[in-house]
Design a protein that fits this description.
5 helices, 22% strand, Macro_dom-like, Leucine Aminopeptidase, subunit E, domain 1, Macro domain-containing protein, alpha/beta, Macro_dom, binds adenosine-5-diphosphoribose
């Protein structure tokens, strides 16, 4: 795949990849606890809140998060908007509301492109706010039904492409996976991209 990178293990044994001046790492847990400058929400096109990651982030950020997203009037699938983080404590200062596609096998290529662009736009918005660290959930792999083994390399590759360009404010991209099984899928995808 042609992206120069080094596969390492962080002090806690978690897989990590070094790309340019940046790092991509994987952890298992709740994204609300990520303690990164920005956290990415798996939102829907109306930005109206929901369950899963969206519900957890809105509960932690408080009702003011709806006030912050309302002026946007929604967000296209494959895109994202960025707001303040409401009541989520520092160092988290921003929430990126990314809208991944609802997966359908019949539209696999289109869904893959939309998932990729949701990550790309999220990372660009982080650059605009001089964010150094950002945490992503496995966008679209819950309610939206994107098979996680298909989604993982798309998400990881978007992050690698972003970091390899250099001169980026984003230096650390963390994928926060909710279950051990999801972490395993992302670990395998990261290892195989690292060999590429
Ligand atoms: N932290 C990290 N990951 C989480 C958390 C959490 N607190 N809660 C759920 N997850 C995981 C799920 O296990 C899944 O792998 O996040 C992934 C994405 O799942 P969803 O939150 O369902 O997101 P998505 O598939 O993109 O669907 C978006 O769900 O709740 C609605 O408003 C949201 O309509 C939108 C849709």
């Amino acid at each position: 795949m042609g992206i120069a990178c080094t596969f390492e293990r962080a002090e806690d044994g978690m897989p990590e990849i070094v790309v340019g001046a940046g790092r991509i790492r994987l952890v298992q847990g709740d994204i609300v606890q990520a303690k990164t400058d920005a956290i990415v929400n798996a939102a829907n096109a109306s930005l109206a809140g929901g369950g899963g990651v969206d519900g957890a982030i809105h509960r932690a950020a408080g009702p003011e998060l709806y006030e912050l997203t309302r002026p946007f009037g929604g967000c296209a699938t494959g895109s994202a908007v960025i707001t303040g983080a409401g009541r989520i404590p520092l160092p988290t200062r921003f929430i990126v509301h990314a809208v991944g596609p609802r997966y359908s096998t019949a539209r696999d290529a289109e869904c893959a492109a939309l998932l990729r662009s949701a990550h790309e736009v999220s990372l660009r918005l982080c650059e605009e706010k001089a964010v150094e660290s950002v945490a992503f959930p496995a966008i679209s792999t819950g309610v939206y039904g994107f098979p996680i083994a298909r989604a993982a390399p798309i998400a990881l590759q978007a992050a690698m492409e972003h970091l390899k360009a250099g001169e980026r404010s984003v230096k650390r991209v963390v994928f926060v996976l909710f279950t051990p099984a999801d972490l395993q899928v992302f670990s395998e995808a990261l290892a195989s991209l690292g060999q590429g």
